[in-house]
Amino acid sequence: MSQPSKLVIVVGSVREGRFGPVVASWVAEQATAHGSFDIEVVDLAEFEIPLSLPAASPKYAGATYPRPAGMATLTARFDAADAFVLVTPEYNHSYPASLKAAIDWHFTQWTAKPVAFVSYGGAAGGRHAVLHLENVLTELHAVTIRDGLAFPNYFVTWDAGQPADPDAPGYAKTMFNQLAWWAAALRKARAEAPYPD
Ligand SMILES: Cc1cc2nc3c(=O)[nH]c(=O)nc-3n(C[C@H](O)[C@H](O)[C@H](O)COP(=O)(O)O)c2cc1C
Question: Name one Pfam family in it (predicted).
Answer without folding.
Answer: FMN_red
